[in-house]
Amino acid sequence: MSAVDTALRVLDWALTGFGPPPIGDLRDAEQLKKPSGLLRHLLGAFAASNAARLGLRDLPPTQDHQVTLSGAILAAALGALHTPALARRLLAAVSPAPNPWDWITHHGLLARSLPFVADADADLLDDFLSVSPLTAVVHHPAQGRRGEAFACAHDWLNQSADRNWLQRTLARPSQHPTVLHWRQELLERLRLTGEAEQTFVLNVYETAMIHHRPEYLEQIRHARDVLTTTQVKEETLRIALRVAAWWGPLTALEHSHPHELRARRQLGYAYREGISLHRLAQRLSWNLS
User: What are 251-282's pLDDT values in tens digits?
Assistant: First the structure.
């Protein structure tokens, strides 16, 4: 089996498969620079399928913005998770994604693979996140790449057709403290950027309340119980603190723009539970940074 075969198997898995990505080898990896028509076709099909799954519209046609070969290299690296050193070496050849179709291709491959990458080698996760800008934005950036992730998010927001996807994704609940920390930081930085970004931040919280209210209320209730209990495990406390911190940008907006929050009828009133949790954590003098 060659590196091209591995890339083909991983792309096929990403389109139709279940479980972890298939294992392959990286022989004749230089052939990834001269892919067959089949590999090119599968890359384009995967990009289009992933864009449809994410609900992205009004993107330029793939023939106008050709999906580059970096997606094939990334796919081959995902098939080599059992050999992290080789996967890392191959990732070094992945060029920065130059257009939205590459961003979508990279994210589609990595988003499905995140749990398996972390299980294979925790340090390898940063290498993969470094070559997938969208995954870094909605999950968390690699170490030392937060500025790049924020710039990517800002660029993505300037494409109005794609705002809804980012809005929906950032509104989904998470129990991962690193993800919560990054999303809170991202929303806070956007809040401080300008009026359009403030509106987007409000949209994220409104979407959270429309589509995920029960999950958030349960998360808030559990975090409040943790913060008011004297003996809890360190990891449990860490998650509760991150849950409370996630509501910080909305707490600040309620203080600075109360009329805008009241005008959002679909925001409802349940969001006040999150703001109450954030203020409780502040009163208890927890460090939410």
Answer: 999 999 999 999 998 999 999 999 999 999 99
